[in-house]
Amino acid sequence: MEDAPKTRPHTVMDPTQMSVGEMYAQALLDTLPDDAEALEIAQELEALSGVLNSIPEAANLLSGWAMSTEDRSTLIQRLFAGRVSEKVEAFLSVLNRRNRMVIFPAVVRGFRKLLDLREGKIEVTLTTATPLDPEQQTRIGQELDATLAGKAVVRLRVDESLLGGAVLRIGDRVYNASLKSELMKFKETIAARRMDVKAK
After folding, report:
1. What's the domain range around 30?
2. Which residues, 6 or more positions from 91, have their beta carbon under 8 angstroms from its beta carbon?
3. pLDDT of residue 12
């Protein structure tokens, strides 16, 4: 893995950053052949990410360019020594030495995704206009398990702008059955017909 170029860091959702984060996540996962231990590391990384999100000042210092690599290393030891496992602390040190702490959120997301794939799980994001009750969540999970060749890991989101229906993301594919989507298609159809009329 190459050292980070001395350029200005990008946003968390930058595609390049997500790709590099997944590469580092894969390297970490490859050192964890035992799924139980890998799950513990995933939970530890996610908990650590949550802590950093709750302390923006610390997150900015660790991921920013105002501090030297040595100063960030000292900060990492002060914050996490004895509070995280040796493997996670060592991994943070690797990210720091390579000036990659800025991609930590992408690493956390990529690690969980890769672990799910290794365990035969399929990540599914279901976005609805209103929250689903527990019975609906259970039924949808069962239906997805029966449909997909694997165990569905359903992550729920609420987006009131959908108006109704749902948007289902399975991997890189998106299935849109929202009322908002149907209205947009209707508007596009009407606009196309008006263009045809004007053309005549």
Report:
1. 15-116
2. 28
3. 42
